[in-house]
Write a structure and sequence with these properties.
Length: 427
């Protein structure tokens, strides 16, 4: 995003935008944000608030630009060459420091060190760095949670998300370059940074599935995204006209522990769902489905590279599936659906989408690009533009017709609806 490069002008814009946001929160008596552990989990201004939401996003972008201008190039470069934030978070999670600090109180360094069996000197140094990054706080020699560290206790699934990032993605990332040298030009899912980091030759999903702790960590991290801004359940509920299928059947292909189907089942009382995945992904998941929904949300073991066994469903939903695979594998996944499709069957892709560079505010650009590099490290796959998604369908079968691509305001996921047209068959 380009914009002004004048310090004073940026400061004025920030003041104007922030005033609009502040006025809105105060006049509507919305919960006021703070940097303490009890701050509201969601910022009180969301995409439904139109211009006020835009003012918030513009202010974040302008703050980024202003900060950049106030630092000299060497200072900027030094700060951006940092990789310690994730390392500190890994240590603090591995030793369970997050849980040793009470969410509504404080603990001394020596208490935490003893409870977590970590030398106090190391604890202090990791915490000091984490505090400089906004995690945890210290007053009078006592450690408390900040808004950013408390989130891992307030939303327990986020602790698994942190585990997935620090224990799986973090070691994989520096090994991407090693994998590129070991397997030049590879787009195979078992020749990745993750493979080199952990010295194994399975795909990420096969490797997760063979270890219960890893498998649960990954499935919970996926579930955690439902409460992440940009990915929350509301977007999947509103991102598609589900009501039009009345009592139709939705196949949630690669649906993990069913968290997406459950959200949809809560909103659309007549729809039925079959969640397909490896059995390890939905181990014990059926019991976590609310009792009243169980008749409408079922689980089925199915490998999506094999022919789809459920014929003629209203929609085959692929949420966060294609981004895990390089192009030839995506084409195989789509072709495996074709024998099950009737004239008029729909496929809905809900996936991270990459818009043209420069069209997103920088903090959003960073999140999308982060996900893209994580896909590279885990699977030799990538995040795609809408055009790249559609190209996969065109290659898979000429009978696919693009209905629409939708990107709801504030959503990191785009929704591509594709129709299967088979003229030789009645709808
Ligand atoms: C990134 S997760 C997305 C999960 C879920 N759809 C969501 O939106 O949170 C990808 C899912 O694909 C599943 N998966 C991977 N390979 C598969 C395969 N060959 N057959 C079926 N499921 C598979 C994984 O177990 C995982 O649950």
């Amino acid at each position: 995003m380009s914009g002004t490069h004048n310090l004073r002008e940026l400061a004025r814009q920030i003041a104007k935008d922030v005033t609009a946001v502040d006025d809105f929160i105060v006049s509507n008596k919305l919960p006021y944000p703070s940097s303490t552990a009890d701050t509201p989990l969601l910022f009180p201004v969301d995409p439904s608030h139109g211009d006020v939401y835009k003012a918030r996003i513009d202010a974040i972008q302008a703050l980024d630009s202003l900060r950049g201008l106030l630092l000299s190039p060497p200072e900027r470069a030094m700060l951006q060459m940092q990789y310690m934030e994730t390392a500190a978070l890994q240590a603090l999670r591995r030793f369970d420091v997050f849980k040793a600090v009470p969410i509504d109180g404080h603990a001394s360094y020596s208490q935490i060190a003893e409870q977590c069996s970590i030398p106090e000197d190391r604890l202090r140094r990791f915490l000091r760095y984490a505090m400089a990054c906004g995690f945890f706080d210290e007053r009078d020699g006592l450690v408390s949670h900040s808004a950013s560290s408390a989130v891992f206790l307030r939303i327990p699934l986020w602790y698994d998300m942190l585990g997935m990032v620090t224990e799986l993605a973090f070691p994989a990332m520096p090994n991407v370059v090693n994998a590129m040298q070991k397997f030049p030009g590879s787009s195979e899912p078992n020749e990745t940074g993750l493979n080199v980091a952990f010295g194994m030759d399975k795909t990420a999903f096969e490797w997760f599935a063979e270890d219960e702790a890893r498998s649960v960590l990954f499935a919970n991290a996926m579930k955690a995204t439902m409460s992440a801004p940009g990915y929350n359940a509301e977007f999947i509920v509103k991102g598609h006209d589900w009501a039009r299928y009345s009592d139709g059947l939705i196949v949630d292909v690669g649906g993990s522990n069913g968290h997406v189907s459950v959200q949809l089942a809560k909103q659309f009382a007549n729809l039925k769902f079959v969640v397909q995945d490896f059995p390890s992904a939905f181990k014990d998941a059926a019991e976590s489905v609310p009792k009243d929904l169980r008749v409408r949300v079922e689980f089925m073991a199915h490998n999506f590279f094999e022919t789809q066994p459920i014929r003629g469903a209203s929609v085959y939903l692929l949420r966060w599936i294609l981004h895990d695979w390089s192009d030839p594998y995506c084409v195989k996944i789509l072709r495996a659906l074709v024998p099950a499709l009737r004239n008029g069957s729909r496929i809905l892709i809900a996936d991270n989408t990459m818009p043209p560079r420069g069209s997103l505010p920088n903090h959003e650009e960073k999140l999308r690009s982060f996900a893209d590099l994580m896909m590279m490290a885990f699977h030799n796959s990538k995040e795609r533009s809408p055009e790249q998604f559609w190209a996969l369908f065109q290659e898979a079968d000429p009978r696919f017709k693009l209905v629409e691509f939708r990107q709801p305001e504030g959503s990191s996921l785009g929704f591509m609806e594709v129709l299967f047209e088979n003229e030789s068959e009645e709808p």
